[in-house]
Amino acid sequence: MSNIKKFVKSSIVYFIGNVLSRLSTFFLLPLYTKYINPADYGYYDVSIAYLSVFTSAMFLDIWVAIMRYMFDYSDGQLKYKPIYNGAIIMFCSFSIYGILALALNTVVEIRYLLLIVIYGIFVCMQNFFSYIARGFGENMVFAGSGLAGTLVNVLSNVVFIVYMKMDYSCLYISFVIGTIVQIVIIETKVKVISNFKTSYIDKKLIISMAKYALPLCLNSVSFWFLTNYNKVVIANQLTTHENGLFAVAGKFAFALTLVSSCFNLAWQEMAFDRGSNGSDIGKFYSTASDLFLRFLLCGTIMLIPIVAIIFPFMVAPMYSESRNIVPMYLLGTMASIYSQFLGNIFGALKQTKTIFISTVFASIVNILVIHSLIGALGVLAATVSLFVGYVVNIIIRVIFLNKKIDFNVNYKLILLTSPIIIFAIHIYANMSLVANYVMLLFAVLFTLYYLKTYIIKILNKVRVRRIRIEN
């Protein structure tokens, strides 16, 4: 199967499993905003923000290293070697995680600390099994298990919040229940437990994987300062109420992440498989970047008026102030998605140090900008700093890629779409619902025209395949 066919097939699978499953949680937004007040939802969001950096630091993001090293083995059985060697690193991290959690419990009073700690454990286990499934090429299992786990999560939230009248603590519990279902489904297929052999343990491989993962871990910590740190600043310098508004605005930006994630996940596998092989490697990655950027920019243009249209139906009145935050949040999310796309190229080239360096500089910019602007702009400063930080991140990564593999970015594309995005934001903020409907129609027509070459190619391939089937 060609790279393009593999990419398209993987993207479709990830759309079915990853996007559709997580969209169900997006549609729970009316439930959350009706039954959970902004302060409590903001506290929950901040606790997850702290947890994300804690688990990344403790566990070295070892699941990424596991999947990358699995691609070094063509023999399906030998793919278990990096799994078990990576698992040793992860279980050592579990011990440290547990000790630190117990120590924290003696000195700091945190609401629902035990639930938060358990939540963190299952985040790591979910990543561990999910990346293994993808490393084996079991994308349908990955997608299907994610869908099943999310549905269980959603149903649990509905029961706990609506019928049992529980507070926001049920959000932790529901995630754990759904993740257990996902892990069980993946294990029945990949059989990580039953295939263990002591002969697979390799000290040199453990060290090699740890060296690969350490920059990714440091990158994740720096990445936290580029994203989740903003939530902490809002909670401390403003209130958890404003953090709740910021979290709800992020749900709409998350829609852009969901749609692009199916492409990014497929791209990660494709890039890891390609690595640094081939004389045309620069052209390969530049062409892929151009296509991805086209879809990302057009998607952003369409999403801005869509949010304006659906916002009143999705969000309760007490969260209405979050509407003004959404457009800038979308721009920051768009930049973060493209940054991740570039990061996967460095991961494929095993240049993880560059990922770390670019994120550190971007994090510093984010911190400086948010502290400079939060007094004047309030919660909006968090979205501005997010966007500026990711732009710096992208610039650094493009410079390094250009030196490494002669990588090129389509700057004409950015110059063409930027005024349209600004115009869409103006309509979103200052004009009527009818104007946003008109903007949406224009965005759709613009997307169809601008991507017509790719759309025609896809339709021609579908037509040829249909003819072959009929004959």
From TrEMBL:
Keyword Transport carried by entry: no
Major localisation: membrane
Keywords: Cell membrane, Membrane, Transmembrane, Transmembrane helix
Protein name (record): Polysaccharide biosynthesis protein
Cross-referenced InterPro entries: Poly_Biosynth_Transport, Polysacc_synth
Transmembrane segments: 12-33, 48-71, 83-104, 110-129, 141-163, 169-186, 206-226, 246-267, 291-314, 326-347, 354-374, 380-401, 413-431, 437-459
PANTHER family the record matches: O-ANTIGEN TRANSPORTER-RELATED, PST FAMILY PREDICTED COLANIC ACID TRANSPORTER
Membrane-protein topology: Multi-pass membrane protein
Domain of life: Bacteria
